[in-house]
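Why does this matter for the project? Reviewers at the last site visit asked to see concrete outputs rather than summary tables. In response, this paragraph embeds two records directly. Each consists of the residue sequence and, immediately after it, the corresponding structure tokens. Nothing has been edited or filtered.
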Amino acid sequence: MKKILLVLSALLFFFGCATVRKTDMEVKDLIKSAMDNNQTEIVIVTYSGVIKNNPSDMDAYKIRGMLYWRQGEYEKAIPDLEKVLTADPKDEMVRETLGDAYCEYGFTFRWKGEYDRAIELLDKSIEINPKYYRPWFYRGRTYWLKGDKVKGLADYSKSIELDPGFHWAYNNRGATYSENHEYDKALNDFNKALEIDPDGECAILAYRNRGDVYTAKKEYTKALADYTRCLELDPKNTFAYLFRANVCLATKNYTKALTDYTKCVELDPKLLSAYLGRGSVYTAMKDNEKAIAEYSKCLEIDPNNINAYYLRANIYLGDPYRDNGDYNKAIEDYSKCIELDPKYANTYYQRGIAYEKMKFYSNAISDYNILLELNPKDSMGYFRRAFLLSARGDTVGAINDFNKMQELGDESEYLYTNRGNAYMLKGDYELALEDFSKSVKKGAHYQPALGKGIIYYLQGKFDLAVKQLDLSLKRDKNAPAYLYKILICKETKNEADIPGIVAEAEKFLKREMKKEKDDSINYSNLAQIYCEAGVKIDEALELAQKALGMSDGANNSYVLGLCLYKKGNFGKAIENMEKIREIKNADTWYYYRLGCCYKESGNIEKAKEVWQEGLKINPVYRFILGELEKIK
């Protein structure tokens, strides 16, 4: 019955519309009646008939256009409403409706990712009704999605100007300020949004966004409060759990972080950030097995997730200052990262360290080269490359890299200490002493004093050398200082002091062995001290063999060679010491010792060859110059 009455009403309207235009109220009543009685389609069909019979009937276009608009069929509504507005530019109801139709129609293209088309339609909406706040807001959002934050901010501000109570505009403008790191402005906007809407849909996002700002400002207590309030309003807000977990991770509340990351996984089993976060928690807790499992789970969901490969590789790499990593797996994961993103600069740095650990030094240098091509301002990239170049005899290249670090603003004690070492290896002792002095001013660690002590020893200034070596030991116990003190005692015929020095070194290194059972350097250092002191040679040999079994580095091979040399086994000694030459080590001391082995074995020409090679690195090395003088 209602259907019949409505149709009759529409027909009565049809027969009367040719002579009398309907008021806005009458049009609204008809549309409301059609919508309330689910007769929209019938009325649209009726007025389509009206238009067919009388193409100049503007009321028919108006009613049909507004019905299309109410149904969200904006593409159909716009032509009808355009026709009416052209005929009567003063029809404000049509102007507002048409403006909104363009606005909503434009925003549908925003969802499709067709941003230019969306902006074109939103421009039209603003042109028709410039005082309508919503198209400004939608266009601001669209500009933001296109990456034009300046225009986005301008449109959000215009939307607020037109409707100061529109909370979403404050929220979105605040989010844009936050991305620009304008945190005070962002907080003002989020506060205003929450003042207008303290517990609605917008409030959920505003609390979360404000929590993000507090997190960026490291105001973690406030951030936690906002994420918690967000979850009170929306207990299934996955990202609020995620971001709260991130704050808990940052504040080392690992138990709470795990709880929130796990809740994320429950709400969204494919949320990769939750697995990555849980992996980071386990990494911080030093539970590497569980961390690897989390990153591996992430890769099951997304086999191309570069972050999971990178973080898992970091665990495989282990401590860069110890030989405790699974370097093959680390390199495999870092290589996958590079395959996925060849411009992921830091991956080359990390893989370079893994190659160093595997003794693939050329590969490591190659990775550092690529890193520095991608990021010429990576100070640590220059540092790692300089360290390798210096160790392999290219002290000039190393010094150039250290100088580049200084150009980039690095004035750290580590720069001066390591550049000082490079100058020392090169034989530029005065420049080395200058750098070591600068390092001392930056920090009171043992290395610059040790470096000075070694230089004074190499120059034959034994009193100054002992003073610096003692200062180095006072700052931090270290094996090289004990070793050089023993060498000075031998050269100055002061052998009576050697047993006391050996005892101190032995006590220190055995304590280190207990603390770091897997660190080969402590075993090889004690073996070298025994050999140079001429004591416990058999025990030294056992220590050297153990060190080499733990890590087959060139230094451990040298120490084993030294032990064999002391036992008179020159052939085996030479075989082990030659590994230093294979990697082109820059420490001329090794070449001096290797030459002595050849000399003792009767191969003077080979000894001269090795010593000449050492002089190419350090032309003023007094021990080699002395030996060559003896055999003229």
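We now turn to the second protein, recorded in exactly the same manner.
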Amino acid sequence: MNYPGYIDLLRAENKASPLVSVVLITYNRPDLLKTALGSVLEQTYEDLEVIVVNDGGLDVSQIVEQFDDPRITCVQNQKNLGAASARNIGIGSAKGKYIAYLDDDDRYYPTHLETLVRALESSRVRFAYTDSYWRAVIKQGDRWCRKSKDVLYSEDFDRDTLFADNYIPIICVMHDVELFEDAGYFDEGLQCLEDWDLWIRMAMHCDFKHIEEITCEVSNRIKDGNSTNDRLKSVKAVTKVINSKYDGLVFRARDLVNVETQSLLRRFEIRKQHSVTDALDYLEWWLEAYVESPRLEYLCAQIYRDREDLVRTKHHLKRCLALDPSNRQASRDLTLVDQELRDGGSRAKSTAGPSDQETGEKPVAEPGDVSRRTPIIVPVVRPGQGAIAAVEQLAAVTDNYSLMVVNNGGDDGHHPEGYDQRLCLESTDSRGMARSINEAIRLLSEEYIAVLRSDVLLYDEGWLDNIIAFMNRREDVGLVGIGGWHSLTEQGVPDLTTSVLKLRGHPDSNRPTWRFTEVAAIDDAGWVMRNNGVRLSEAYRDESLFALDLSLAYIKAGFRVYVAAVEFAYSEDREDVAERFALIKTGRREDLYGMREDARLAMQTKWAELLPLTRGFYDESYVMNRVEELANYARSLEAIIATKDDALTHLSEHEAQLERALATRRTARLKEYFSQRLKGKPTG
């Protein structure tokens, strides 16, 4: 809902307008509304108004009239519109300089508004928030019973963490009404998380102030398992919508921010005191959407084991091992659980959560089981030691993979040792790299497939496991390369100034800012792809184009494309290629691998609807600009300190000069004194 000119109207209001407007929404809970409304009117800060928005529920006019307070305005919706719409309607009736929020099942403590107003008025911040108690409310029979209360969230403001985690309850917030002019209103298209969505937008315009005081109380009604699962499904779906809304901002922030495991465990333990099911749902939601933690995965497995749910136990043990293959205890537990499931034990039936088939997860690879390992396709185009060096280096830094060498009609038949000869495709003539890779892919059924040039040397251990763990967690990612570009031009070629790669021996300016960086396209050095039917185009004979084309094919299919921060180099017998690639990727060479004009035109024509295209570049630029700002600030502080040091040095020298002058003066006086005495003259 939009309110054109609303801020201008506010400015034109007379000076008698209240300083604070509290928007209180309610729906079919008149008994709770009475308590919530009373908590507002009992505030120590009295310059307020409260707008009660009845969102199409039971009539509450009698409850409002009981208070007989002119500061109350009641708005009645004809039908239930949802929290976002109800709040926007309340905001449309507000007259205050500051906006605060309340739901009918929550309540303020007496100093809540006073604390927030003091913070906003005494500083230049436009958005402030306090801490709150979280109270579980459990249904016992026909009654809802309030349990003990705990502090669930108390986090200082950090913009990246906010983009990753909704840690600011709406009840804790007060902000300047003019922020709506900058950031817009609540998104009425969201079923939930509409407050988080608005905080993200507001955080793009100002910093938030955290007041570490408990000034209010949030009630969490813990319902039956089906209701909880439905709520979590909605949260997951809306999270993806918000992520898409801001061009992948949420998931990029989750890659950037290291969410504190201890903080999660504390929140989990608080919830567990009241409902194990609710606590598990909360923890699994975090593991699905936020963090990769073998410790938390194993914790979930233990709890499900105690609840005799072997299917969910196995699910979390496999995820634990995918993140930490060296966890022997988890490996032993998985063997025992598999045995019990094969024996058809009574505990085999899952009591909560999706099965392996529902989640679509691949089994964790067992040692020696090639069929469960990630296949890496290495197309060999030219003879030489380069391919041997590449495969040997691959073995040194990679676990849990099988090697498929594709002899593309140019090799001399001397293949590198250490791969299964049955996985080697032979050809007597060069058919083009794209066609060779596609033939290999058609033989594979694994969920993920890696492709690596035969002249590329990888140096980061565990690179493949890290990429696959990332793609497991990020269903919206279809392709991850080791080099690429943030931008493609309208002509269908990369903008070389936006290169992203961790190429050994070349400028750091081109290196990824984060572990995983979104791009418009990858290059052909190497990648991991989701095996979902997308294939390389065989229409181009130009090797430089098929990786660009593949990237755009994934984007058109609704996936995102990323570059992983994996360090690599080109083999020594390919120094000419290495140097040419380095010049191109660092923007010092204008041509693109000698791309033929006819091939470029074909590329441009095919993808005209997507071109030009930029992904992730502005976010990375923002980070780098912030780093530069902080560096400049640090340098200015150093200059100030140096100036003070110079002043102190000068002062010390001046003091020494004074001391010498005083000593000289005292000596002169003494000489004068004794001279007068020797002459028999009286002295003063």
